[in-house]
């Protein structure tokens, strides 16, 4: 940035930006050893059926217990891991660990109906040639049926996707793995384009739910959600909503025809046993 000031003029360094850069650099270089040392862990946030309020599964959300900085959220380090390529082994670990966890829930929950597991995939994982074989391998070794796994890909990762990029997703989809379009509504994808994508779940971004925070909800927001839901359903896509924070939102989203919800109203992301308890309470209560 100093360079772009041009000529012989120098800008004073911004100490805060420096601190951020050092931290970023420090975090980036610490990532590989962190993976070796097992500093990452996964929290699970329930996915709740809006019709009957039952817990149907969970989304796996990775965290880093950094020895100096404490717990770091994925927004702090996923972009760095994506940049260096470490996201490939890290993402593989997240997949393996959360699939293993899903098997534990299923064993403990025979009567509660199969609990599903959603795992986020980053763009670099999508283009990695091992994606399909690693996933098949992890599923086979764990014994989890492919239909219990949902891979979440952001809308922006698939914008302008060509057939080469879609091929591995299509393979996984043909095996029975669900593919969700994450953060839907934040990108600029052509709605008609949805037909081309091997996707069977739309995850409506939190920004839509936020628009419903005020009472009465913004009628334009409601119309948009209603339109997206009816388009999604006409294309045989299920709709999950993110960021549900109040009962009023949940009720409104249910009325608008959304299928599944996720958010603080139900539960914050938490340890695996917490999901087990929630699913169990739900099955017996
Ligand atoms: P995402 O996949 O859209 O995940 C939902 C995010 O919304 C999570 O943030 C979750 O904690 C947060 N959230 C859930 N309910 C509420 C709510 O009611 N209100 C509010 N304000 N927030 C809510 P988190 O855990 O910080 O994750 C951020 C993003 O990091 C995720 O967004 C996902 O894109 C990425 N991410 C997380 N884990 C992984 C991973 O294992 N691999 C990859 N590639 N990305 C990951
Ligand atoms: Mg997600
Ligand atoms: Mg999301
Ligand atoms: Mg989101």
Automatic annotation (TrEMBL):
Ranges for domain EAL: 24-283
Domain of life the protein comes from: Bacteria
UniProt protein name: EAL domain-containing protein
Protein's organism: Streptomyces tabacisoli
First and last residues shown, out of full length: 431 to 715 of 715
